[in-house]
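Re: the multi-chain job from yesterday

Posting the exact lines I submitted so nobody has to dig through the queue logs.
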Amino acid sequence: MIFRLKYLRLFCCLAVVVAAGCDTVEPSFRLNMVEAVSNDTGDAYQQEIQNVLGGMFGSPDAPYVLPETGLDQARLQVAAGPAWSDQAGTNHGLYRRHCVHCHGINGDGRGPTARFLNPYPRDYRPGIYKFKSTYNASKPTDEDLHRVLINGVPGTGMPSFSLLPGSEVESLVEYVKYLSIRGQMETALIRYVYDDLDEEEALDEKGNPILDPNGEPVMLRVPLDPENEPDQREAILEILGEIVDGWNAANEGIIVPAEDQIPSDSRTPEEIAASVVRGRELFYGVKANCVKCHGPTGLGDGQQDDQDYWNKVNKVFLESLTQKTSPAVEAVKQEVAATLYPVRNAIPRDLRLGIYRGGRRRIDIFWKIYAGIAGTPMPGLGPASAGATGTLTEAEMWDIVEYVLSLPYEPPSQPQKALPENLNPISSAG
Amino acid sequence: MRLFWSFLFFLVPVLGVLTFVLAPYFNIALPPDVSEHGRVIDNLFMFILYLTGAVFVVTESVLFYFMWKYDAGSNDKPVKFSHGSHVLEIVWTILPAVTLLFIAIYQMQAWAVAKMDPPRDAQGKIIDPICEVTGRQFNWDFRYPGPDKELHTEDDIVRTDGKLYLPVDEEILLRINSADVLHSFFLPNLRLKQDVVPGMKQNMWFKATKTGGYDIVCAELCGWGHYKMKGRVFFLTRDKFEAKLTEMIAEKNTMRVKVPEEE
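And the result, structure tokens for all chains:
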């Protein structure tokens, strides 16, 4: 019976379907099209940039880093590639197993589930991170990234990964840095091509310019080819060095609270209450001006018209669509614009909820007040870098920390209890 | 042909029984039970399993027998029609109804202990929650009342790393709520799960009998991350639990940072 023709056909159809499903296409990094289109990067340059990045950083399945980056190649191997486990039970493909569906294969925060999230997942490519212990302009330390993975980001779609073995968390931190450095290099290359690679005159064997029928020199596009052009190679390695230096300097950017201004561990309740009062004064005062954004009641309903860095980039790009350019460029821009998620304003935090995205230790809130939050309109009130002067003293910042931590427990912040039902009919009151 | 088809159908009860017999060796049996009341629930489960298993084997065997005996290829006698047997109908309605009634009454106590009778103190008041569990997409957040033993006061300890610490050998009451959509707080090793409806605070209570770390999983589809909404509950002795709370308070109050050594 099995050999009857109609069953044979059915079997063959099923076999083809199954085989097609089993065949997987290797994923590849996609170019940062917003940057490329904003910088008029032509198709040929786009391809060459992809090639250079491929040579410098490999592919999602086979990452590679130059020794200059200081990244751990072994950890990247574990984090990259398809998700699988070996005989010993070691998990590979950690990024794809845990992160890619939100943060995207490029680390651009555009994975398949990203569009359903508010706030959008982080785009690693600019190398800007909100929740860290360093000055606003500095990179996060490894410990900062580690903390985000361990605690998640409450109030967002980012869960905690503390149940993963420590080595896996460290591999993921390494891979995030890899995607960041790669993303920064991508933007730098696009800008390098735009700024430094111009057209050059075509020359014949004797070194004279070749002229076209009108008598103008024929202009040739200068290809991006660091393998064969030592100048370009040098320039690119210099750019890489700058990017890597930024990451290596993260530990030097850690904000260390001054020991003499840290509140004592053995304060009496009266001292704590006094600190809260001082914090309240500062919160509503002009020097700190917290209410401008966080609102007169701390609900985050002050100004809400600004965007964070990542949304602003998209907003600027979308606004550039109104400028008149050639129809071909228009078409490409429209295509790229269609892939972007809706621009969202940066809504200041409602401080009465008790949800702290960047960490809820005293020092986490202190760091937010000191350095602000990088990539957002939240400004820092401390020195912008070591040796500079800030707007507030550290003691004042600790007072604000005390006030902020007390805000969710003030009577106005507590949910109102349901009123008891009026069981007596109104008519009985006469 | 009757050999093939009737034995194919006979494989169903054979494989069904084999699955349960061999389950422990393939790690698909019930997970280890570390709660006081879990034993009752497991016994109930086993009782129903054996009862329905016996009925299952009997009915499938009868099916096999009929397929074998009345196979069309080997029977050339004319079909005999029966107008049914009134007695048989009554028997096989009453018997299952009585059995179900028995099970319904038999399990009432188990259900009441797990879902209707929270542990009370000497005065008859329900004990205070030792932790408030909040499910959000896609993480479990925990809030301990802190030294003042009251939830939603300033000394609360809030943890978002998915690790719940609880004392062992004590009656525990957890308050469970949801921050956004439906979730279900499921402790497989304590045989307890509780769906949380947003806006509705639920209680869950148990007493753990063994220290160690056990799984927390989400048991109500809550979105694309439901499959990885996991946590870990650790049962510690009372003094270790108190020490852990102190550690968490200290971390909450961190005001200093350690700068890594220059490499």
